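$ fold --in a.seq
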Amino acid sequence: MVEKIPLRKTIARLDFPAIIAFGNPLLDIVVIVKNDDLLKKYNLKIDGETELCEKKMQELIADLPPETERCTTPGGSAQNTLRILQWLCDETHEIQIGTFYGGVGNDQKGSILEKLIRIAGVDVKYAIHSTLPTGLCVSLAHDSSRSLVANLGAANTYTLDDLKKANPQLDNMKIIYIEGYFITHSLDVAKELVKRAQEKNIIIAFNLSGLYIFQDHQAAICEMVGHAKIVFGNAREMIALAQALNVKYDDVTDIPFLLNSLKRITVDVSSGNSKDWLADDGIFIMTRGGCAPAIIVWGKGQSVQIPPIVPKAPIVDTTGAGDALVAGFLAGVLAHWDPKSCLELGCKVASYIITKLGVTLPSSIPPDLLP
């Protein structure tokens, strides 16, 4: 393993963009609610994710109490991750660390979203769908939990033709990051990206994203897990994945180890004694929330657990915690840090983000966030 050197010093040596991400670009409305009345009315789950039709979404927005604290920010899982990653690597925006791809509408929400993303220093190459509205997500934050409600609109469409028009240049690319929500409508695009990544030895990182997508897209998720080098998920998503793959376990903490073992048996490829932990597939990162540590498993069952980092300010909104952890982790991967350092940074960034309303980023990095 190369000696760990400061993140930004290493990142500055890369060719850019070093990462591209594919997902559902959404405009987020983050609202702090004082009780769970709206969750009950719309049958929403605490810390859950669901989709509503445009009519129901407008009803929900109309039902939001006028006095509630709220903010409008760019959203969507992978888009959030790229924003945070850019902020970590260079908040001055002298370099653009990554490019985001997804579908938006030809409307005011889409224009606002693109403006906000570009202000954050992230390059975007949206596919514009003139007959569909830009996707919207309402995050209802209550105490230390949140419930996400989305109407995907144009975000639910991204075709092979859109990819061809965007024509991402992959010669110097290090990572292609794909959120699970994206493959519910664009599996063919994801598979084409996998094919191109394999030809150029680019890391595929995949996020399981949400429990509810397993109901109708179990086979697609399992296929992407098979292709990905790095897989992120929380405990509930990992349990769903284990069940989908018929993996038997005694304790939830066994799951990433069993998935790692299954991946090695299925792929039957190993770098042997390579010192590069990224040489092999089967890297699984599982978060559990609360006081339970995050776990990473790689190689031949090697692992590290990182206890949750207590925020220095009160928890305000947990909406972007998972996206932030991925951003910190992938920043470490780009810097070629060891697994423990990558996960530690991910946990630190997640701990910071949950003290903000929405995924809102200050103009400068807190001095104690980056090593």
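$ fold --in b.seq
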Amino acid sequence: MENFTTAPELNHTLGVWTDYSIQYKVISSLLLFAICALGIVGNVMVILVVLTTKHMRTPTNCYLVSLAVADLMVLTAACLPTITESILGSWVFGHYGCLFITYFQYLGINASSCSITAFTIERYIAICHPIKAQFLCTLSRAKKIILFVWAFTSLYCMMWFYLSDINELVYDNITIITCGYRVPRKYYLPIYFFDFGVFFVLPLLLSAVLYGLIARILFLNPLPSDPKDKKKNGHNNNTNNKRTSCKNSRHSSSTATSRRQVTKMLAVVVILFATLWMPYRTLVVVNSFLDRAYLDSWFLLFCRICIYLNSAINPVIYNAMSQKFRAAFRKICCCGRKGLDKPAAYSVAITYSAVKDSSMVEGTDHFTTELEELTVTDDLLPDQKMMFPDPCVYGKVNFSDA
């Protein structure tokens, strides 16, 4: 995260140091600690759910694990040191602490942006090109993409080991140690603008275009039923064809519902990423054109809270908008009851509407690209699983007697 501390001129005092007020210290430390604790617990639960639950290991969830790891890095490398600095008013982690904490801050920020871009592209291919998705959106390919994302961002952020250092700010009444820059702030502007364009503006523009195309498919063009089934049912009224038609109709409806649910959840993640990062990114751009940077402590606190909230809120979104994650979170909180690795017996697996018997398919890895599992839990249907009769079941008696 960009540090607004500038390298001071040697042998030049900065006046009288005024410490943060008690009100600022209490409010900032409590808010930051609450957000940090919520984010760490939530993101750890996301990682545990996907890694320990077999039916949760899908390409999309792999990208969400990458995003959770990046958010954890931001919370531990940025939020926790900010709490200490708010209370003490000085940097206490030393020279190497400054280097590594700055490095992991930028690594988490850039990796989270790349992870969001990756799952946006994966959603676009899955929804708009379902045939190609069976070969492009596989679990093994998702792992390779995530490995590349972290390798690229790790190498890119190495420069901060050479650009960061601790500084001594000499005041009339005290000397303050800060984690800042080796050289004046103006030399860092190309890096900041490059980060702003590549890791913020470009992902948001790409997401806007791709989610627009996805919305056109999901919300404007309903999923058609299988024309072959329609033809069969038009010329043959036997029991098996009617049962097949009913199952295909329910499968198509469930597929559309599941795709909309997953897409809405991921779109909310992208929108919150843009909204919560906007104040801080805007402040950095504005300060780049000012002779004297705007460094109001309360506004800086607001910007930082937005950033840390962005890293903490994603698990809350998953729990609120995904039945699958919600059920898995409950089981994690209940100390891992038996059956965590097995979806409910009456769950419906939703996969891409593509030809499954293609001779080009060489392995089962191509079929791990399921969008979502529409799991009906016991909490949703406590004692009334059979309240609504199944027209397919009731229809077979009459047709068989005819």
